[in-house]
Amino acid sequence: MRPTYLTREGYNKLKEELDFLKGPKRREISRQIGEARAHGDISENAEYDAAKEAQAHLERRVAELESKLANIRIIEDENFPDDKVYIGARVKLFDIQSDTEVCYMLVSPEEADYKTGKISTVAPVGKALLGREVGDTVEVRTPNGIRQYEIIEISR
What we know:
Layout: E1 4-6, H1 8-38, H2 46-70, E2 72-74, E3 90-95, E4 100-107, E5 118-120, H3 124-129, E6 137-142, E7 145-155
Parallel strand pairs: 1-2, 4-5
Antiparallel strand pairs: 3-4, 3-7, 6-7
Helix pairs in contact: 1-2
């Protein structure tokens, strides 16, 4: 299985979610199942069915998180070149059409959050930037049309 690259912050977020699901959330669902079971016949008990469905959903998410966390590589621990855009890079771009600067950090899809400037390496802009250097101009097809960016700074 291929590793998933995350920032330390992203790793900690997934770990906290897993701990919550395996602890307080599991106990809460178990309590709900017990209460629903106490109402009598479980064959026609909507509360019981809903609680069991929630339990199944929880266990799927726990398994998914455990699988992801088993294959995590922390970006800060990797030796990516500083002169090229790779996952974990902070990139300052000049948007040629709007004559403005924008800054992004390239992250895995699990951590992408456009509002905070974290874009996925599989998103159109992220994909176009991978492997590029300062001074390169990239064209990106976006929902709003084709955009051109010049890479003006790369940092880690």
